[in-house]
Structure formats: structure tokens, C-alpha cells
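Ticket #4471: complex job returned nothing on first submit. Input attached below:
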Amino acid sequence: MRAAGSVPTDRSTGRLSLLDYIRVAGIAEIPEGEMRVYDISVGRVAITHVEHRLFAFGDECTHSGCSLSDGEFDDREVTVECPCHGSVFDVETGEPIEGPAQDPVPVFPARLTDDGWVEIATQPAGEDG
Ligand code: FES
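Support reply: We reran it on our side without changes. The output follows.
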């Protein structure tokens, strides 16, 4: 018997289906415009929200691995600036806007449930199953 709300898996491969979501945190834990970081099965993920838009992205800067959630979030540009050497990432696409980082951080589709939970997809946006 499967518990209500559990994540279905593909029995033939044991892998989660594309765009399965996992519950991460209550939205009340994440003040609007602030970042919170969570260690979950997909890795270390930073989550923030602005004006009912949720953003979930890999916390590790692709330059030298600093924690982006220790940096500055710009809620108008929806960007995060790395605290170490100033790389700026678009948190919607993950793309670096300013270096020295050259590579994007992963971004995860995120949603808010009716009962106030933040859930994120188990695979980054744009990644094939
Ligand atoms: S570690 Fe982020 S800019 Fe260098």
C-alpha cells in the first residue's frame, strides 16, 4: 500500500519519473526576498520567493563552490550575487550574468501547495530524464 502523496517511481527502472516533486519546506520558513538553503536528495538547493514566484537553484557557485545563499539576492532583477568573487546568476535560468563564473547553476521547477508547502522537481529544468 502506498501512502497518500508519496512519489511514484518507475518500477522497471526504480527511477523517479520526470517532474516528480519532493516536499522541501513550509513557505512560512522562507521570508519573501530571503534565501534559505536545504540539503535534499537532489543536492544543496537554495529557495526564495518574490511576489508569488518561487525560485529554487543549486546553492554551489560554479566558479569555486561558495554558497550562493550567503550572497545577496536582488528581488527586482531576480539575481543572486556570490559572496566570494561577485559572480551574478539569474535565479530563473541559472545563467551567469557576470563572471568570473562561466557555467550556469541548476535551477529546479518549484511549486507551492494549497496547504503552504514548497515542493521542487527532482530534476533540474531542462535536463532530460
Ligand atoms: S566562488 Fe562564486 S564567484 Fe568565485
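The chain has one domain: 22-121. Closing as resolved unless it happens again.
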